[in-house]
């Protein structure tokens, strides 16, 4: 979860992109980025209790396991 204006998010983009690219062929791992500034994503960001940016959520078989922010 990120905001385009966030300086910390801008710093992590190359690392996140590299990780997503490294796992792109692994069907067990999915990487996604959610822009919490966009109106269409605000409900999801509230539901996931995103308080700061960037925030990383880890899921195992669709169940939330860990948060890093």
UniProtKB/TrEMBL annotation:
GO terms for molecular function: isomerase activity. It holds the Pfam family Thioredoxin. Keywords: Isomerase. The keyword Ion transport does not apply. Residues 1-69 form the Thioredoxin domain. InterPro entries: PDI, Thioredoxin-like_sf, Thioredoxin_domain. This is Protein disulfide-isomerase A5. It comes from Macaca mulatta. The lineage of its organism: Eukaryota, Metazoa, Chordata, Craniata, Vertebrata. The gene is PDIA5.
